[in-house]
From TrEMBL:
<dbReference type="InterPro" id="IPR050366">
    <property type="entry name" value="BP-dependent_transpt_permease"/>
</dbReference>
<keyword id="KW-0812">Transmembrane</keyword>
<dbReference type="InterPro" id="IPR000515">
    <property type="entry name" value="MetI-like"/>
</dbReference>
<keyword id="KW-1003">Cell membrane</keyword>
<feature type="transmembrane region" description="Helical">
    <location>
        <begin position="268"/>
        <end position="290"/>
    </location>
</feature>
<keyword id="KW-0472">Membrane</keyword>
<keyword id="KW-0813">Transport</keyword>
<protein>
    <submittedName>
        <fullName>ABC transporter permease</fullName>
    </submittedName>
</protein>
<feature type="domain" description="ABC transmembrane type-1">
    <location>
        <begin position="155"/>
        <end position="345"/>
    </location>
</feature>
<feature type="transmembrane region" description="Helical">
    <location>
        <begin position="159"/>
        <end position="183"/>
    </location>
</feature>
<dbReference type="InterPro" id="IPR035906">
    <property type="entry name" value="MetI-like_sf"/>
</dbReference>
<dbReference type="Pfam" id="PF12911">
    <property type="entry name" value="OppC_N"/>
</dbReference>
<keyword id="KW-1133">Transmembrane helix</keyword>
<dbReference type="InterPro" id="IPR025966">
    <property type="entry name" value="OppC_N"/>
</dbReference>
<dbReference type="Pfam" id="PF00528">
    <property type="entry name" value="BPD_transp_1"/>
</dbReference>
<comment type="similarity">
    <text>Belongs to the binding-protein-dependent transport system permease family.</text>
</comment>
<feature type="transmembrane region" description="Helical">
    <location>
        <begin position="325"/>
        <end position="345"/>
    </location>
</feature>
Length: 358
């Protein structure tokens, strides 16, 4: 690990303030994605705590809740909560005020602006701390769900799509590009013909076709986006391999009788990793945008899973009303994360340039 930080490329990358800022944002996003259910104010599965009475609240709104026990509740273990969240042990009932009389709590249940209802519960039916106050820093959507919590949990969706997409696109592009560049001839002609066919199809149209074939859902989006982004990688790798295959160390490996697969994997790939990393960062950013677009159009991640694109779709009507932040917040999140990957990609391009100076 220490050798990485002593690498000249890392030293050049550290001097690029934009790239380092992007790296910091990405690290924060990864931490938020992994521990989202522990960080989010609403740690329920998918941050899907629906409280219709408080739908459409503005940023900074504070509400009091009477916490009524549910009939059955089984707390999850650590890993269940890490991956799926913690189901609510209580019903959260919005109230305006409350009073304690003997063994009961009498509350004024909030129904709508200027509308309330008097309710009474015995203390045994309530939580140990029966009344809690919550602040909705970014407001609530039309279903009364906490926008901030869904933004945090949505980070996991965006980063997951980007990661799986990069793995799929790099795997396919690296293999096909290497075969085309190394063997040339008919192999190159066939692979390039296939690349050009895929290249000629608009990305969103191809994603729609694959999504409709595989169905709507979480994993289907990963595969659909990944299968459309390998072309750039293949073209780049082909060009790099065509240049590298003529160098002396490749000729030496051939003279020693090494198999072609070994020469490609052991001797060529490590020497073209720089450009591949740069295009991987660009593909990561593109995958986030494409996933958001698919979810906005209704063919990506499906409710109640929080996707930033889906959140924009659900709340874009609020842009022309008194609460535009409901739709702008996920838009800003997409913009910041995509910008971070683009800045990091540009920084990697400069840092991995063999002509770069310390």
């Amino acid at each position: 690990m220490s050798s990485i930080f002593k690498n000249p490329a890392w030293k050049r990358l550290k001097k690029n303030k934009g790239a380092m800022a992007g790296l910091v944002v990405i690290i924060i996003a990864v931490f938020a994605a992994v521990f989202c259910y522990f960080i989010a104010p609403d740690g329920s599965p998918y941050s899907n705590r629906i409280i219709l009475e408080i739908g459409g609240e503005k940023p900074g709104a504070k509400k009091q809740f009477l916490q009524v026990k549910k009939d059955a509740y089984e707390p999850p273990d650590f890993f269940e909560e890490l991956f799926y969240g913690q189901p609510d042990a209580y019903h959260f009932m919005p109230i305006n005020q409350y009073s304690i009389k003997g063994d009961s709590i009498i509350a004024e249940k909030y129904i709508d602006e200027g509308v309330s209802e008097r309710v009474s519960y015995p203390k045994t039916a309530l939580a140990d701390k029966p009344v809690s106050t919550k602040t909705y820093w970014v407001g609530t959507d039309s279903y009364g769900r906490d926008i901030l919590s869904r933004l945090i949990v949505g980070t996991r969706v965006s980063l997951s799509v980007g990661l799986i997409t990069v793995i799929i696109s790099i795997s396919i592009g690296l293999i096909l590009g290497s075969l085309a560049g190394f063997y040339r001839g008919k192999t190159d002609d066939l692979i390039m013909w296939f690349i050009n066919v895929i290249w000629s199809i608009p990305t969103l149209l191809l994603v729609f076709a694959i999504t409709l074939a595989l169905g709507k859902g979480f994993w289907q989006v990963f595969i659909a986006v990944g299968l459309t982004m390998w072309v750039n990688v293949a073209r780049l790798v082909r060009g790099q391999v065509l240049a590298v295959r003529e160098l002396e160390y490749v000729e030496a490996a051939r003279a020693l009788g090494f198999r072609n697969i070994r020469i490609i994997a052991i001797h060529i790939w490590p020497n073209i990793v720089g450009p591949v990393l740069v295009i991987a960062a660009a593909n990561f950013a593109s995958a986030i945008v494409i996933e958001a677009g698919l979810s906005f159009l209704g063919v990506g991640v499906q409710p109640p899973m929080p996707s930033w694109g889906l959140m924009i779709k659900e709340n874009y009507n609020f842009i022309i009303t008194q609460n535009p932040m409901l739709a702008l917040a996920p838009g800003f999140a997409i913009m910041i994360l995509v910008l971070a990957f683009n800045l990091l990609g540009n920084g990697l391009r400069d840092a991995l340039n063999v002509k770069g100076k310390l």
